[in-house]
Amino acid sequence: MPVLVASDLDRTLIYSAAALALTMPDARAPRLLCVEVHESRPLSYLTETAAQLLTELGDAAVFVPTTTRTRRQYQRINLPGPAPAYAVCANGGHLLVDGVSDPEWHARVLARLAAECASLDEVRRHLADTADPAWVRKHRVADDLFAYLVVERELLPEDWVKELAVWAENRGWTVSLQGRKIYAVPKPLTKSAAVREIARRTGAELTLAAGDSLLDADLLLAADRGWRPGHGELADSGWTAPTVSALPERGVLAGERILREFLRTARRGT
Q: Could you tell me which of 102, 88, 99 has the C-alpha nearest to residue 193?
């Protein structure tokens, strides 16, 4: 039976220049491979060693990129190794099969959101009414499924995020702060639901997962084994679970360690 490996991307496997955390002397820094270009500028990286590990993982398991990115944002990424047959975008709102969104899956997601939580329009209005232009740089909507803000972190009032989380909780939404982005996401919109569907389709009996943010917690809990890096929302809050390993590595070296763990466990599992 195949092993399914579902991994978050940003700040788990791939890293912006600001998130690399290259704390070692310059001469000992790892060689990096750029895997994303946006508006003619390099944007995301992994180490060359991680690139080799990811290529090997593609041959040893069903590798599923599992991201909160929209489909368009995901398609900017050029990962090494075999092209994934499946991918999860928009936090589970889209299940891609050979790069194309499965319309039946998307329809099921929309029906559940309509039945179980407040509308996107209500959340957007609340964000527009309460977020201060002094620290908000952009208001964005992702694939008509959820909303997020791009903010200046040093100016962001901590109490505002807590108040937003309480407000959202009462309406069936959750809030996640990741770097310079504040996400408001419907609770039924989960990565784990899409990954369970892929496991059903592939016949996988072992699922491995990794992620760094609150939006990855459900994915990690649904997997047979999971890993989280030493940075990010989950690490900052001290989040743990019996089947999830908290790694000490931070930054781009955490991505390399996660891929080593995936590959070792996938080979043992098969």
A: 88
